[in-house]
Amino acid sequence: MGDDLPRSLTRAAVVTAALAALGAALAAFVHASPALVGGLAALVAFATAFALAATARALHAPDDVREPRTVHATRALEPLPGDVTRRGVFDRFWLYAAGAFAVLGIVPFVALARNAAPSGTKWRAGARLVTPDGVALRADDLAVGGVETVFPEGHVSDYDSTTLLLRLPSDAVGGADRRDWMHDGNVAFSKICTHAGCPVALYRQASLELYCPCHQSVFDVVHAARPVSGPATRALPQLALDVDPEGYLIARGDFSGPIGPDSWGRTA
User: Fold this and answer.
1) Partners of 163 in the beta sheet?
2) C-beta separation of 180 from 154 below 8 A
3) DSSP for 213-264?
């Protein structure tokens, strides 16, 4: 960067930083790819650094106003040129950039305020619970302590809809949270772990807990499958159950929340 760097180049860097900041904020608001938001934020940092370096160079006093420090005699000094103490480098473009940076500063708060997206599975009100073979289940088909992987009827290959159906003992039902989501001791939760998306494949009847074998997250079935151990921080989404006129278990709607890890879909 030479001493005669054009001021227009500095302004171009400031404008680029401002536009990139606004672009990053807009991308965050419309829930664009995090890579896009991060790339624009990186461009803001690069362009700002370039503009500041150019501005520092522009403020640098020219060599012709320097004098040797060996002169000791007291004498009247000529005033410095006016452009040494006041140079037009901090113009309105910096004000525009400051406003854009302020907008970019609220992006983290936008991320914190995002609502959980709907689970978006194939479960719908009235959908029968069926086994992987497509067999519909009645409320008393599972023995107490039993567990079965189920899907919405007609969608046995939809992984996002994979659900664990369990039948709790009568003494556990009385103290369970969200009892209105159960039917005759049957309770259903998403089989997809909320930590890393692994299948929650193990059920320990003695403690009424579900285990994810990937990273050992443990979920308390009696209390709405809330995590009690391991890295998972969010409960398994629950499926409200009912029975149709023929006695088959059906869903009353989709899951109570988004399935899988937070990074999968909690960006709405």
Assistant:
1) 150, 190
2) no
3) TTT--EEETTTTTEEEESS--SPPPEE-EEE-TTSBEEESSS-SS--S-HHH
Q: CA torsion sign, 195 to 207 to 131 to 124?
A: negative
The CA distance from 191 to 136, in Å, is 18
Beta bridge partners of 241: 251
| Annotated domain spans of the chain | 7-112, 129-265
Rg (alpha carbons) of the chain, rounded to whole number: 32
E-assigned strands of the chain? 129-130, 147-152, 163-167, 186-190, 202-204, 209-211, 218-220, 226-229, 238-239, 241-243, 249-251
- CATH classification number, 129-265, choose in 3.30.750.24, 3.90.1150.200, 2.102.10.10, 2.40.128.630: 2.102.10.10
Given strand 147-152, what is the order of strands in its sheet?
129-130, 147-152, 163-167, 186-190, 238-239
In angstroms, the CA 202 to CA 74 distance is: 90
Q: Express each pLDDT in 161-207 by its tens digit.
A: 999 999 998 777 655 455 678 888 899 999 999 988 899 989 998 89
Cross-strand bridge partners of residue 243: 249
Residues 114-149: tens digit of each pLDDT: 444 455 789 999 999 999 999 999 999 999 999 999
Residue 234 contacts residue 223 (beta carbons within 8 Å): no
What does the block give as tokens for 42?
């990186």
Who contacts 262 (Cβ-Cβ below 8 Å, separation ≥6)? Answer: 194, 234
The residue assigned the tokens 């896009």 is 36
CA gap 249, 126 in Å, rounded: 9
